UniProtKB/TrEMBL annotation, chain A:
Any one biological process term the GO annotation gives: tRNA 5'-leader removal
Domain of life, source organism: Eukaryota
This protein's name: Uncharacterized protein
Family to which this protein belongs: Belongs to the eukaryotic/archaeal RNase P protein component 3 family.
Spans through the membrane: none
Subcellular location: Nucleus
GO molecular function, one term: ribonuclease MRP activity
Keyword terms of this UniProt record: tRNA processing
Annotated source species: Kuraishia capsulata CBS 1993
UniProtKB/TrEMBL annotation, chain B:
Compartments where located: Nucleus
Lineage: Eukaryota, Fungi, Dikarya, Ascomycota, Saccharomycotina
Organism: Kuraishia capsulata CBS 1993
Keywords: Nucleus, tRNA processing
Family: Belongs to the eukaryotic/archaeal RNase P protein component 2 family.
Any one GO cellular component localisation term in the record: multimeric ribonuclease P complex
Class in the EC hierarchy, top level: hydrolase
E.C. number(s) listed in UniProt: 3.1.26.5
Record protein name field: Ribonuclease P/MRP protein subunit POP5
Reaction catalysed by this enzyme: Endonucleolytic cleavage of RNA, removing 5'-extranucleotides from tRNA precursor
One record GO biological process: tRNA 5'-leader removal
Predominant place of localization: nucleus
């Protein structure tokens, strides 16, 4: 299985997307499928200020991309942008409605909070910008020790020189600070032409100094861990035990042959 | 006698999906439909020379003189089919990863936006060729089943002829 955990949902608020937005999302999914990805997460980005509705907090309607459900395994994900440490209350409301929860910390304090305390699966940093803080080994590893993974989005830097420069530097910084552990690679772009095959994306990390097996894990094992974490939060008894044949794929059939029976206990 | 070792990179050029294509929505509904959309023949003329130039350019902009010097030496296109957009390039073994990264970072060929995807890295031209033929055939079978792709049928059945070069230098 090859995962891309960041396919942006066209809207960043609770309005419903237009027909053309859905069409371009479908085109993107078609290309991802052709590039060999099997597990996709649609990412809904939420600014801190946006008020959550009282009813359903998940605007992603998987029925809109129904035809892809037999071809790709599609998950939903929410990303919360955190500027101010004091107001992250929204997180507890979002907890049960999405398969994956991630945050984008905008300050060092927010990063520390996300790394040490928040109930999340991923920390996504804007690597195509100059980071406003220095990535410290202690902060980063406190996250990886808890099983919270860092996400690298390669999509934005493909088309822009300056972003590319920042990306290379920042990713090197993350590789150093995380001691080469706990990274997830995903696209994070809504431009279909900025998508790359997993070999190419992984190869870029190899060029940046990650060894091949670890680089490969950033699109296979690590994102699976994140998805598994999310599944445990939703469906498990005390975050530890779920019974089933194939936990990640349990709700829908995916075209090719299923993976062998596995219990979640084996994976932990 | 020591062989000079190279790597052969099989690549595929992907063009943007045509916005104006009729029944775009319907084609996206099935896998073969989407494949036929993605693998339309290009609107621009792409020659092996253009591809090599783009790779060199990308090496230069992303990895500078060092990258161009290390990776650009052996760089030659062994085969490129404009119809199926599949091709093989020969690169030196040490700089394979660098060249692949440069290929990945290409966004344009002759000012038209494209994505170039590496399908396989192989140590011998024969295996690269086999991969290419297998893929071409597989695609043509999928596409021929689909009405949208019928015009593309038998595009890939053409023989692949790749000049063997004398690798057995000292």
């Amino acid at each position: 299985m090859i995962c891309d955990l960041n396919v942006p949902w066209p809207r960043t608020d609770y309005s419903s997307p237009t027909g053309s937005e859905i069409l371009s999302l479908k085109k993107q999914l078609a290309i991802l499928e052709e590039l060999g990805y099997t597990h996709i997460a649609l990412n809904f980005t939420l600014d801190q200020g946006v008020k959550l509705p009282s009813g359903n907090v998940n605007p992603i309607d998987l029925k809109l991309v129904q035809e892809f459900q037999s071809r790709l395994k599609i998950f939903t994900r929410v990303t919360l942008i955190i500027d101010d440490v004091s107001s992250h209350q929204g997180l507890s409301k979002l907890n049960t409605s999405f398969d994956l929860i991630s945050v984008i910390p905008r300050s060092e304090k927010a990063l520390q909070l996300a790394a040490s305390n928040l109930e999340i699966d991923l920390i996504s940093l804007p690597f195509h910008q100059r980071l406003p803080f220095y990535l410290k080994h202690k902060t980063v590893c406190s996250a990886t020790d808890r099983g919270v993974l860092f996400e690298i989005n390669y999509g934005d830097m493909i088309s822009d020189d300056l972003k590319r420069r920042n990306f290379f530097g920042n990713v090197k910084g993350l590789i150093r600070a995380s001691r080469k552990r706990g990274m997830v690679l995903s696209s994070g772009t809504s431009d279909p032409l900025s998508l790359r095959g997993s070999f190419d994306a992984v190869n870029l990390l190899v060029v940046l100094g990650l060894d091949y097996s670890r680089a490969q894990a950033t699109v296979t094992e690590q994102p699976t861990k994140a998805l598994l974490n999310g599944r445990l939060r939703l469906k498990s008894h005390k975050q530890a035990v779920v019974m089933g044949t194939d936990i990640l794929n349990d709700s829908e059939n995916i075209g090719h042959k299923r993976r062998k029976v596995e219990t979640i206990v084996d994976r932990i | 006698m020591v062989r000079i070792k190279n790597r052969y990179v099989v690549f595929n050029v992907i063009y943007p999906i045509d916005e104006t294509a009729e029944s775009l929505e319907a084609a996206l509904k099935t896998k073969s439909g989407s494949l036929s959309l993605i693998h339309q023949p290009p609107a621009i003329a792409i020659t092996p020379k253009v591809v090599v130039q783009a790779i060199r350019q990308s090496l230069q902009t992303n990895f500078g003189d060092y990258g161009n010097g290390v990776g650009g030496g052996v760089l030659t296109v062994k085969y490129f089919s404009e119809k199926s957009s599949l091709g093989i390039i020969k690169v030196s073994r040490e700089s394979t990863r660098l060249v692949c990264a440069a290929i990945m970072l290409i966004t344009r060929l002759q000012a038209s936006p494209v994505t170039i995807r590496v399908l396989r890295v192989s140590g011998s031209v024969k295996k690269a060729e086999e991969m290419l033929i297998k893929r071409g055939k597989g695609l043509s079978i999928i596409l021929s089943k689909n009405s949208v792709g019928q015009s593309l049928d038998s595009l890939f059945d053409q023989d692949v002829h790749i000049e063997k070069d004398s690798d057995e230098e000292q």
